[in-house]
């Protein structure tokens, strides 16, 4: 999998050389390339923004640098196998399902904007050439797309076959398909007693059926308490 990042702050992506992602890069599972959008400007100030047409506050990212960067980094021929991700406050929700879909893609280009956003023609042009995902991390406000691109990267790459040491751990996580849309149950490890707090006895019983029931019940309880939006009528009936 090749990952490209276009940003006026390419240093954000230095972190991708650390921990598991660094290991994946070493193992050849993932190739990471960060690019400075200003390398495709031609004026002395390396300008990437301008005032919004129609007025309004803030600045908008000019289309020209993006187009020239696309030409050099991706190419000038349409190729739907290239997936271009635009993090955006007005994007569709980024979900585990989207992460799963992207984990089987060979090439992803992250377009990380700043200011009030990117000239919309950049996204329209990208849609005419590649497979585009305009996604939002959630209902809160970031200053640009870089942090979102990092989060999306981690969510996607950890699903790439061969990346996680124990793929079984993926199956038991919150939001994974195997969890039936439920949140993950509470986790415990040794010591059995810690600062007057004990591991639930059932987890030390060795009775796998009881343990499985306790975990299911806890997942249902937590989901109903914290994420009623995840429990549709069918799921409630099944639980
Ligand atoms: N993904 C996501 C996401 C999220 N969940 N919050 N904020 C963002 C996000 C993503 C991309 C940009 C670009 Cl380009 C510029 N900004 C700053 C901004 C903030 C508020 C309104 N308009 C622009 C971005 C914020």
Automatic annotation (TrEMBL):
Enzyme class: transferase
Protein name, entry field: tRNA (guanine-N(1)-)-methyltransferase
Function: Specifically methylates guanosine-37 in various tRNAs.
SUPFAM superfamilies named in the record: alpha/beta knot
Similarity comment: Belongs to the RNA methyltransferase TrmD family.
Domain tRNA methyltransferase TRMD/TRM10-type positions: 1-231
Coiled-coil ranges from the UniProt annotation: none
Localization of this protein: Cytoplasm
Domain of life: Bacteria
Chief place of localization: cytoplasm
UniProt xrefs under InterPro entries: Alpha/beta_knot_MTases, tRNA_m1G_MeTrfase_C_sf, tRNA_m1G_MeTrfase_TrmD, tRNA_m1G_MTases_N, tRNA_MeTrfase_TRMD/TRM10
Residues binding S-adenosyl-L-methionine, per UniProt: 113, 137-142
UniProt-listed GO biological process terms: tRNA N1-guanine methylation
Subunit structure: Homodimer.
Annotated Gene Ontology cellular component terms: cytosol
Keyword list, A-Z: Cytoplasm, Methyltransferase, S-adenosyl-L-methionine, Transferase, tRNA processing
UniProt catalytic activity: guanosine(37) in tRNA + S-adenosyl-L-methionine = N(1)-methylguanosine(37) in tRNA + S-adenosyl-L-homocysteine + H(+)
A GO molecular-function descriptor: tRNA (guanine(37)-N1)-methyltransferase activity
Known EC number: 2.1.1.228
Record's keyword annotation contains Cell membrane: no
